[in-house]
Design goal:
Helix content: 10-25%
Mean pLDDT: 82
Number of strands: 27
Largest sheet: 6 strands, antiparallel
Structural class: alpha+beta
Strand content: 25-35%
Low-confidence stretches: 490-575
Length: 575
């Protein structure tokens, strides 16, 4: 530590040793300043990876991850310390600083176990850094002696590590150019002094693809509940940890094309229940578009006769051109379109929001005197920002005489429930006479003019896989069809059951919105009103009151913090 201090002293113009509070005192934020913090991390260390892989690394080729091992150790240590604190009382700051009491020394060691550099230097110096969390946790547990040998009717709920998922961007592009699998795996660590009787994944499907207040609250709809499978870790630390949490995981297939809310719940042998913070993820179907995409279009492969719907999640205008960014002729302009003035593009206002919260515009057909081989576009948002990368859509100028039809939504392999909207795109070199929808071969409805959309109540369908089809018939009697499969309700693995509405006695381990940490919050608000606590949980015991744990100031105690600060403006690009 002294070497660290000497290094700072030798570089006074580069770095400053400071605490969070000292920094805020020196540079107080404006009273009306609003800051929204998204998942992310230190760009200088890992290029801003939202999984915090520098501190939460995936297993290597041998299946071992030093980082995950350390999190499992801390999950167990934190639960044991919370239980000991409930029994013996919380130490003062002075006792932690000077080690003048058993609990003060125990907390001091546990805090030292959480130094982030132990995760940063994976496999360095023969693994000594990887072993420090276990070493410090062992020292902390050693201070407790036999305090937890017979904890009696302890009321501290289990400790749950913030739920992680693989792949992080399921069914979409994560790294490189190949979409990931849409099969969603959720994993976590869980531990309790009294032992665990169950660890389960709760998930539900969002009907509109938007993250809103309904998604942020536990008790707004029923959840699908799936047991998670335990796996014991084999630590390679020296020393070996005295206590370590098991890993729990489960894979849910068939969620493609839906926005999913999920959390992990655990119960110990004494009936104390913990709940992790809520998580939300859009599960794609192997591509970059879909009902939840920030910008998308359908049909995916339009012809010169097609009506092309382009949509976005925010108000603004479609900034578009043709054939490699050439201004389209006025004959192709929708109402209220204006020239951009550069000879390359025009702006067409987006209309909305629609039933699904999206803003959209319809282009085409492109069967005039100017041949359109390609549409080029981005979204020019109302706040004068842009959607990002230019998008290109190829136009088929030789589609033949049969009609073209595509079932645009729901997405193939999507998991659906309740009332869903069927959306089809149909075109023909002559005229489309009708577009008919069916479910498992049974007629569901027919339309004779665009838009080809209809609502369908899936509640009458049995849980499981069903086939949705659409057939377009042109004015000469030619037909074309498209079909997809969807999963209705249930859990495609067959192990899912619908759980009860969450009540006030099961909120627990808080997560602050990031994917690589878990903090304890025990104010007990959700024990009184489960709808009041949203993404942050709290701790409730089997007797219905707040679970006892360490105060927030201990968990967040800035014993020594080197703060590198740079104020910058971030620009979001959504695709």
């Amino acid at each position: 530590f002294q070497g660290f201090v000497d290094w700072l002293v030798a570089n006074p113009s580069r770095f400053q040793f400071i605490s969070v509070q000292d920094y805020l005192d020196q540079f107080p934020p404006a009273a009306d300043d609003v800051i929204h913090v998204e998942d992310g991390s230190w760009s200088g260390a890992d290029n801003g990876d939202p999984e915090f892989l520098k501190w939460n690394a995936d297993p290597g080729t041998d299946g071992y991850s030093p980082d995950r091992t350390s999190w499992a150790v801390l999950t167990a240590a934190r639960n044991r310390m919370a239980t000991a604190t409930a029994l013996a009382g919380q130490p003062t700051l002075a006792e932690i600083y000077d080690g003048s009491s058993l609990m003060g020394r125990a907390w001091r060691f546990l805090l030292m176990a959480q130094a982030s550099d132990y995760w940063y230097w994976d496999n360095s110096e023969n693994g000594i850094w990887d072993s420090h969390p276990a070493r410090a946790a062992n020292l902390a547990m050693g201070e407790l002696g036999g305090l937890l040998d017979n904890p009696g009717a302890e009321t501290v709920p289990p400790t749950i590590y913030a739920p992680q998922r693989e792949p992080y961007n399921p069914g979409e592009i994560e790294w490189g150019t190949t979409p990931t699998t849409p099969d969603l795996t959720v994993w976590s660590f869980a531990y309790d002094v009294s032992g665990l009787t169950r660890v389960e994944l709760f998930y539900r499907l969002d009907s509109d693809g938007l993250v809103d207040s309904q998604n942020h609250t536990y008790g707004t709809s029923a959840w699908c509940v799936v047991p998670m499978t335990a796996r014991s870790l084999s630590p390679r630390t020296d020393p070996a940890p005295a206590f370590i949490a098991d890993e729990y995981s489960v894979t849910i297939p068939g969620l493609g094309g839906t926005l999913v809310d999920y959390y992990v719940e655990a119960e110990d042998a004494r009936g104390n229940v913990a709940r992790s913070g809520l998580r939300h993820v859009w599960v794609g179907t192997g591509g970059g578009t879909g009902p939840g995409a920030a910008v998308g279009w359908y049909p995916s492969a339009p012809s010169l006769h097609s009506l092309v719907t382009v949509y976005a999640r925010r108000p603004g205008a479609l900034h578009w051109g043709i054939n490699g960014w050439t201004e389209p002729p006025a004959a192709y302009w929708p109402v209220d379109t204006t020239a951009w003035g550069d000879g390359q593009a025009v702006d067409t206002p987006l209309q909305g929001p629609g039933f699904d919260g999206r803003y959209a515009v319809v282009l085409g057909p492109f069967d005039g005197t100017t041949t359109v081989n390609e549409l080029n576009f981005v979204i020019h948002y109302a706040d004068d920002t842009w959607s990002g990368t230019d998008l290109q859509v190829t136009i088929d100028n030789a589609p033949g005489t049969d009609p073209l039809v595509e079932l645009a939504e729901p997405a193939d392999s999507a998991r659906v429930e309740g009332t869903v909207r069927f959306i089809a795109a149909a075109s023909d070199d002559g005229a489309v006479a009708s577009v008919a929808f069916s479910v498992d071969g049974n007629p569901a409805g027919s339309l004779t003019a665009p838009p080809y959309e209809m609502d369908y109540d899936t509640s009458s369908l049995a849980s499981g896989t069903h086939t949705l089809s659409v057939t377009a018939t042109d004015d000469e009697g030619n037909t074309a069809s498209d079909s997809i499969s969807v999963e209705v309700s249930g859990g495609g693995s067959g192990e899912c059951y619908v759980g009860p509405e969450p009540d006030g006695g099961v909120d627990a381990d808080t997560d602050t919105g990031t994917d690589a940490e878990a903090d304890s919050d025990t104010d007990g608000e959700c024990c009184i009103n489960p709808l009041k606590k949203k993404d942050d949980g709290c701790a409730c015991s089997s007797v219905g009151g707040p679970g006892s744990s360490a105060p927030r100031w201990i968990l967040l105690l800035p014993l020594a913090l080197l703060l590198f600060s740079r104020r910058r403006r971030a620009q979001n690009h959504e695709i």
